[in-house]
Write a structure and sequence with these properties.
heterodimer; A: alpha/beta; Rossmann fold; four-stranded mixed β-sheet; 12 strands; globular; B: alpha/beta; 2 domains; four-stranded parallel β-sheet; 13 helices; 10 strands; about 45% helix; metal ion binding (chain A)
Amino acid sequence: MKGTHANLSKDFITGSDKTDWHNNALWFLRAKRDIQRDTIEDWEKLRSTAAAIKDHTLSRLPEYLQTFEENAVKNGMQVHWAWDDKELREITAKILKDNNARSVVKSKSMLTEECGLNPYLEQEGFEVVDTDLGERIVQLRKEHPSHIVVPAIHLKKEEVSDTFHEKMNTEKGNASPDYLASVAREALRKDFMKADAAITGVNFGVAEAGAVVVCTNEGNADMGVHSKKTVIHCMGMEKLVPGYDELAVFTRLLARSATGQPVTVFTSHYRKPRPETTEHIIIVNNKRTDIFADPEFRQAMRCIRCGACMNTCPVYRRSGGHSYHHTVPGPIGSVLAPFYGKEKNKDLPFASTLCGSCNNVCPVKIDLAGLLYRWRQKLTDETSSDMSKKIGMEVGSKILKSRKKYDLAGSVFRWVPKGLLQSGLNPWNVHLPDGRKGRVFPEVPKESFRQWYKKNQEDS
Amino acid sequence: MTVGLFVPCYIDQLYPKVGKDTLEILEKTGCNVVFLQDPLCCGQPMANSGYEKMTSGFEKPFLKALPEVDYLVTPSASCSYHLSHHLLKPLVSAEELAKVKELTEFLHDVAGIDKLKASFPHKVGLHLSCHGLRGLDLGTPSELKVPYYSKIEKVLSAVEGLDLVVPPKADECCGFGGSFAVFESAVSVKMGSDKMCGMAEAEVEYVAATDMSCLMHLEGVFRAGDSPMRVMHIAELLNSEE
């Protein structure tokens, strides 16, 4: 099937020279994360604490959401509730229209990406500029982020240079990161000045204060929020923490896990609107209640979108984020994706070796490999089957359940000509695009252990 | 002490030497070893492919064997993990479940290595198989901040002359992953090939692991790439006399 992770990752690996570079770029983040981990004596305790705080908050989510809303309203914020992606889009557009805003600067938000906000607003005649540099790059290229923290990690600086040359008339062939960043910065400054409204994502909602917290490295959220009369914060309903004490646990974990920084350059707290400004918080569900309602998968709601599972994942690093064909890629993305379409995302929980490295880096200790394993069982039940795989598994399980059939199959196996086992008919054998062999089947020994054992016993 | 030896399907069919070496090692430690004829497979190939339900019935021979042995030992961390964390977990008490041991784990935690006499004067790179490391806690995974330990290295100290190397990224997955190896073959082979490069950089002659499944995949990649490196299960190392 075209468009599956297996095919898209194959294209990434065989159709480009990017795999090793991509792998190393992400491993660099994992290595930086390890260095930051070592600066905190109680790192593992911090992770357990974070998981416990999230579980607690989720167990009383309705209460905390109400507290959050009450406090936010007291602060002068306007709170809206969006049941799904469509409602988020419509509420956002209405706020903009009501405030006569035509152009918007937007800081990084995977939630608005998930809800398809940009294309909708553009279709409605608004101008939207993503102001996070990585997101701006993928926006100019009409692509989607390939990673939730470093959205343009799939692009080399030369590609960015070409895009900027085409869209912003930069010097052709000048791929100096300093040059490209300074041009983007200058262009974005103008966009900030021109825009009528600002939209941000939200990293944490603090229930006791009715405040939202946004973490950025570029200060772009602040540039929008501090200069616009209309401000909208889009927050997934799982982003809540009870209070500032709990928040501190997460600000210690987030940047360390994500990019190996002790903290993001900006950790901005937005509590009440400036004078003559309307500030809105849209609390979004979009299937989160489905995840919340499933006792097996509820722990996925702990996720703070740090991306550490992607950086460590040996499959993600080699296959690129777009091969996951879902807004959030990598291990956590593959856990979330089936909630947004089982049939179209049924391949994703299989795009993993279940090595468990993601579990160990996850700052909120989500059992990602365990959840992928659970999805595999559910999806083979609830979606259409790959018949050859299913039949193969059925035959295999019948053979492995019966000594007689197993012994017979073992003998037949030994009669299969070596040429056939080593041929392309055996799916184990892989040829690389350049024609060289990638992997071959083992030599089959003359006798099995069981046969040897039987003979050995008879001899003695 | 009676030890039931479970030789998993693919080791039985493709790597009988690993079964023989395991049997001999267990006998050397002074255990009364019973080769369990009836259990053929832990069910992992189907279960990891989403067909756990096809493995109902796989548990029967294990349930029959467990009460008759003090330990059920297998030279495969991933099979041992699947037995103790999936197939048998809902069916037997924690005490019975604790009888299921991977070979290294059994030697380290129970039998000891004093009676093992082995020598293998070669440079060997250790690949830390995921299920053994992260599933059975055979050592410290690189992601966690916990004091360093390695049951595998301790057990392999019984091998004289062994020049054991733990290269960088020793605990990165080899790319086998069961049916992943076939259905996601491009990523799988790329991961194996990167493992091959890492081991080659460490200039080892052999690559050893607790799991023959990882090694089957790596052997396939090594041979396809004409690498002179060879693979060895830790049971083969522990039973070598060179």
